[in-house]
């Protein structure tokens, strides 16, 4: 009887083993497939995450760079406006209180050259952060390098037209009015 029970239990166990064997093999195969499937989407997931992070940082850098460039352009415009304001103010004072008409004209000529110099300087500084591929940077760099020509032009023209009444000192002081505007920009508070 004992043998009979053992035989039935063994037959039952063997049937269960063989019955479950294909299921186990399928489970193992499916587990391997699942692990393979999980590993590739997992790798794809992290690759996508890396790509997304790279794109976001690139777009953030571009937007930050554009934002900073807009702030710089606004401040450069304010700087040029301050130069024009101080030049007009000093020209008006010279026009009212000067005994010679050539003193304010000389000053105004120098201030105009100083304004052109400052415009070239601002374009040069704007091109410092640009790349070679950016068309605006290349054009601005060319204008920025020519900024010293305005000082040379001022000296040459004042020397040439001295006989017609242009004065050197007011013209040079007019040129350096941009320093006064620069000081004004340094004392101004900006909310960033």
Quick overview of this protein structure:
This protein has 192 residues and is an all-alpha fold. The protein is 86% helix and 0% strand. The radius of gyration is 40 Å and the shape is elongated.
Write a structural description:
- With 192 residues, the chain is mainly α.
- Helices cover 86% and strands 0% of the residues.
- The protein has helices at 2-97, 102-128, 135-145, 148-160, 168-175, 177-187.
- Helix 2 (102-128) packs antiparallel against helix 4, helix 2 packs parallel to helix 5 (168-175) and helix 4 (148-160) runs antiparallel to helix 5 (168-175).
The number of strands is 0
What's the helical proportion of residues? Answer: over 70%
Largest sheet: none
Total count of helical runs of at least 4 residues: 6
Structural class of the helices, strands and pairings? Answer: mainly alpha
Note the main attributes of this structure.
single chain, 192 residues, mainly alpha, 6 helices, 86% helix, disordered N terminus
